[in-house]
Amino acid sequence: MEWVFDGGRPCLDLVNTVRERHEDGRELLTDPAALAEWLRLMGFAVTEASAGELSAARVLREAVDKVLLGEPRSADVLLVNEMASDAPSPWLRYEDGKPVKELRPVSVVAALGALAADTIDLVTEDIAVRICAADDCGLRFCDASPRRSRQWCSMARCGNRAKARAHYARTRKRD
Ligand SMILES: [Zn+2]
């Protein structure tokens, strides 16, 4: 699977489970098993997902995208609010004497709730959400850099390609 986990926030990683949004979009949450796998990789202790939970995840994902890009309909806001109410309560435990915040127990509904709650946190924080500057990418990321100057979803994926293209264009002009 071509998962990408560098949106900088869980809710953005959810949005990025559709790749190539600049075009028609390519779905990565193709079936319930894919959703369960993605949630596990996100750190949620989920064993399996149902078809209903898969459609809930997809609907939430599109509402999250609208909210984060600043163009939500009232239905999107309502959905995010309703699903956030299923977010699990934090659970404090100690690992080698250090406090660790854990979210458990985690059903798919609760995991989606946590992602909806993260959306509310992110949109109300002073963090910019951007779309990658590469015109063939479409991935979303959050920009908490001091000057809000981050351009690429990741340097490795898009930043270096853009640099190489600019370099190629410069050297060609010289010839
Ligand atoms: Zn990119």
Automatic annotation (TrEMBL):
It comes from the Bacteria. Residues 129-170 form the Zinc finger CGNR domain. This is Zinc finger CGNR domain-containing protein.
